[in-house]
Write a structure and sequence with these properties.
The protein is α/β, with parallel strands linked by helices. The chain is built from 14 helices and 11 strands. It binds pyridoxal-5'-phosphate.
Length: 472
Amino acid sequence: MTPDEFRKHAHELVEWMAGYMENVEQYPVKSAVLPGEIFNKINECPPSDSESFDDLMKDFNEIILPGITHWQNPNFFAYFPANTSPPSILAEMLIATIGSQCMIWETSPAAAELEEKMMNWLRDMIGLPTEFEGVIQDSASTATLGAILTAREKITGYSINNNGSEHAGTLRVYCSEQTHSSVEKAVKISGIGRKNLVKIPVREDFSMDPEKLWEAINKDKKNGLIPCCVVATIGTTGTTSVDPVRAIGEICHETGVWLHVDSAMAGTALILPEFQWMLDGREYIDSFVFNPHKWMFTNFDCTAYFVKDAGALIKTFEILPEYLKTRTKGKVNDYRDWGVPLGRRFRALKLWSVIRSYGTNGLCEKVREHIRIATRLSEMILKESDFEILAPVVICVVCFRYVRTGSTEDQINALNEKLNHQLNDTGKLYLTHTVLNGKYTLRMVTAQTNVTMQHVMKAWDQIRETARSLNN
Ligand SMILES: *Cc1c(COP(=O)(O)O)cnc(C)c1O
């Protein structure tokens, strides 16, 4: 493809992109295809000869689009937001075009230095202390793995990196029962072992019980085990419950344990002064992760990982083969030493574009509106005697269920599961569920970039009507 051909297709594509943004609500939110349906429509073998981009686009529209779940549809209330926005997409176009590998400073100084500055911007926007330094990672899962590996190395005097594990089966990691599965994955991969992940019970509001954490750490110490890391969550995936960072931090401080905070989704709410309470106890935090690629209008991938002792992180990940030795070593940040991959994309440009386009005021306004919508929805649910709210509404997630009088708990669970599937099958909205205290719980996340009160009211009407018309 020549630059001229590219220019022609790119112009057409931009038309397609803008049209998609305008019409995204016309697509069924959740794809209705069956397993294997797309796979079977794609040629067995790659073409031997060149095909036109027009042919590709035709297949994209006919084969691929029906198999897409439209996360940018404002009627997408499932899982968590994976927001894009026009300024983020524009930056992504530049990033793909430049196509540089941003593994060390020398391989694109602007990428390294913009990343350093953007992480400082974000750190200050969310109210982390200034001693924190940040790096962009591909996902919160990767960042949490990095935190657990760093904690592991720090507590063992950086010995496992060199010698392999002499501590097999003795290191312990703690998190709550509501913690994201990425913590379990990290504990498995890090060689600490799943059986050494201690799940601390939660209180009534689904936040970690710090007294139980204290007991667990001390019991382990008495038994000769080595407490290594506590993962606290600000905004759990199920209910957005907030673990008490100060109480947990005091325990970590006293017992010499690394405190990692996972705020993958809720971290964005910290840009609002009225949500700074979630970060009370911040002085005890060793590392912190949040995803601008969830709620901060920056398309996947873009995870912000902050660490107080960047030296410990670098000591854990650093490698220095001959071909990567440079004259600038030590003067600048070589981010390949701050995480797992060597090759890195120029993700900082997306953040720069998004933050400058919205301004911090614009970002606050949007996030505040999403939270206001969740609050209004919960008020509407509370007014209906045959619906109940199952967890406190903290930010942008509402957990609820339909209850029919005279039904058993099992029947109510079955009814809500049926309700969830029937709603999603219409393609008009998309909800996912969790289970809280044995109850099948519908979750409605009101944080898609363009969601408005009108979308939520319409969805709520549909939910009520569908629920009441269900047969047992
Ligand atoms: C979404 C989420 C994660 C995982 O994020 P990835 O970037 O997809 O790895 C981890 N923790 C919490 C609390 C989340 O909400």
